[in-house]
Amino acid sequence: MPPRSNPTARQQRLGVELRKLREAAGMSTEQAAAVLATNRTVITNTEAGRHGISPERVRRLACNYDCTDSALVEALVRMASDRTVGWWEEYRGILPPTFLDIAELEWFARRLRMSTMTHIPGPFQTEAYARALFAAAIPELPPEEFDTRVAHRVQRRQVLDRVDPPSYVAIIHEAALRIEVGGRKALRDQLWNILELSERDTVTIQVIPFSAGAFPGSGQTILYAAADVPSLDVVQLDRAIVAEFLHVEAQLRKFALQLDQMERVALSPEETRSLIHSIAREL
């Protein structure tokens, strides 16, 4: 199979996990290649996510790597078997890869938890709200890229609207509910949209009020995507230039604890809806 010129985030993660299993077993790429009766370049390209691997080969490698975590092996097999072409693929080569990686991460997660301090979470944004955010970019986006970014942002809503959506807990600071992104009407419409989404069984929205003061993680936007098995969980952080994706156990534990603390200081879902109603009526 020839190398992929545009590896997906999921393919790259599968490669990372296979490399971790190989290194834990103390095997070289040449030894792994011998298991598959191939050459080391195939192993290197697979671990880099540059091309796919069959489910059967995943099982064979896991067995020879002495991996006894059957849940992890089955999760990796599912990753290798999945041939989903997500809606985000239409933007490949057009938008920065990070945009696609975030959408893909959201789509394949079992559970999502997000905290944000100054803006509404991406999948919850209305078109008017998203347009106002991208209009504030420096340098100014070219018209075509501006429209493409807005379209991609709005389509992230699909993860909430599909037949089997993941559970989504959104922890939003009160500041994000009051900053008039796009003006009073755009913000009012955005707040009503959040209220509507909060009525869904799979969506939980909690607001951290100004009165909560300081709390762990207050300076970051955090997206925690829980996978089939905990070792495949991913945390995505917004950075100044590109998003950062973390999957080391200590980092996962740290950000899970931060989100736990945020939920404790946040208003209950019922109190949250009451506050959002109040803010919307003021606009």
List the helices and strands and how they pair.
Blueprint: H1 9-24, H2 29-35, H3 40-47, H4 55-64, H5 70-81, H6 97-108, E1 111-116, H7 127-135, H8 143-155, H9 158-161, E2 167-173, H10 174-178, H11 184-198, E3 203-208, E4 222-226, E5 234-237, E6 244-246, H12 249-265, H13 269-282
Helix pairs in contact: 2-3, 4-5, 7-8, 11-13
Q: What descriptors fit this protein?
A:
single chain; 283 residues; alpha/beta; 434 Repressor (Amino-terminal Domain); 2 domains; six-stranded mixed sheet; 13 helices; 6 strands
Structural class: alpha/beta
For the largest beta-sheet, the strand count, sense and barrel status come to: 6 strands, mixed
Return residue spans where pLDDT drops below 50 for at least 5 consecutive residues.
Answer: 1-5
- Mean pLDDT over the residues: 93
Radius of gyration: 21 Å
Given the C-alpha coordinates, what overall shape results? elongated
What quaternary form is this? single chain
CATH class of the largest domain: Alpha Beta
Strand order of the largest sheet: 3-2-1-4-5-6
Series of secondary-structure elements, N-terminal to C-terminal: HHHHHHEHHHEHHEEEEHH
Distance between the termini: 57 Å
CATH architecture of the largest domain: 2-Layer Sandwich
Summarize the amount of helix as a percent range. 40-55%
Instruction: Determine the number of helices (DSSP H or I, runs of at least 4 residues).
Output: 13
Protein name: Helix-turn-helix domain-containing protein
Domain HTH cro/C1-type: 18-72
Pfam family, one: HTH_31
GO molecular function, one term: DNA binding
